[in-house]
Amino acid sequence: MSAQDQCIFCKIIDGEIPSKKVYEDDRVLVFHDINPQAKVHLLIIPKKHIPTLMDVTEEDMTYISDIHRVAQKLGNEMAELDKGFRLLNNCGENGGQEVFHLHYHLMGGEKLPVKVKK
Ligand code: AMP
Of these residues, 41, 101, 103, 105, which one is catalytic? Predict the structure, then answer.
């Protein structure tokens, strides 16, 4: 079985594991983090299995702008985010990454502490 077959975020994309979806298009999915670290804590992921930011190829770099475009859209549309938010990627073991499918944490809805892991 490949890493992609075992990936929990791929299973969320495929609907095999339930999630609270906030936004979806053909490239990106946004859902609520199961263990929220802020009043609003969303995960923005590409629909393609890319393990970490370091694995993003030149060809797939557009996923990064897609993710930022969706973060900006949510920042505009969600009233809880009108005073700002944090967009954060934990990359690799030392970065604290636990799920090896590229994802950005979008956190807000309150004044966040300056130091926060995720
Ligand atoms: P990271 O440490 O950056 O890899 O973050 C992984 C995040 O995925 C954590 O904040 C987890 O709470 C979250 N997470 C893990 N499993 C699920 C799931 N089934 N649904 C939603 N969020 C999840």
Answer: 103
| Domain-embedded: residue 115 | no
- Do 107 and 86 contact (CB within 8 A), yes or no? yes
Give the pLDDT confidence of 104-115 residue by residue, as tens digits. Answer: 999 999 999 987
For residue 16, which of 26, 5, 24, 25 has the smallest C-alpha distance? 5
Is the CB of 96 inside a 6 Å radius of any atom of ligand 1? yes
Query: Shortest CA distance to 86 belongs to which of 50, 51, 37, 53?
Result: 37
Q: Which domain holds residue 64?
A: 3-108
| Mean pLDDT in residue range 53-62 | 98
State yes or no: is 32 an active-site residue. Answer: no
Task: Answer whether residue 116 is part of any domain.
Answer: no
Q: Is 42 in the pocket of ligand 1 (CB under 6 A)?
A: no
